[in-house]
């Protein structure tokens, strides 16, 4: 009610602003946008607007303190569990990778992980161009060709279905490990 009084008191209502508000409230904002939305990131599967941050994990180089790898949380957990299953690092080091500001790897450990992923894990996934985004590595290291259904599973018995990664994300992570001077998780 207050809003209508404010608009009524104006001598010249701002038509552009009223149109935007109308579009937002009516759900037609995207139809009325003049600029197209940015393209979707194929790994994170989300629209990333310039100047915004996403919920996820960032790896900072130990020497330069620059971000060397970004990925969302739903991809990161299966990557860490894949590292665990490769048995190239002690359990406490792998456990730390799940926790931001705690997990880190030295340059030597990162090189070992990158090589193990490239030599032992990537050959198990299809490298067919058409299946790059379709074949997924699940949290328990099983693979599936079923696309992600986008459903958020809340039941504890089904929560493992929320996490998966693909070959493209694993290749990026492997390259990062082989080129960085070690990293810390943030």
Shape: globular
Number of domains: 2
Q: N-to-C SSE series?
A: HHHEEHHEHEEEHE
Largest sheet strand order: 2-1-7-3
Description:
This protein is an alpha+beta fold and 186 residues long. The protein is built from seven helices and seven strands, in the order H-H-H-E-E-H-H-E-H-E-E-E-H-E. 39% of the residues lie in helices and 13% in strands. A hairpin with a 5-residue loop joins strand 1 and strand 2. Helix 4 runs antiparallel to helix 5 and helix 6 packs antiparallel against helix 7. The termini are far apart.
Would you kindly provide a brief summary of this structure?
The protein has 186 residues and is α+β, with helices and mostly antiparallel strands. It contains seven helices and seven strands, in the order H-H-H-E-E-H-H-E-H-E-E-E-H-E. The N and C termini lie far apart (46 Å).
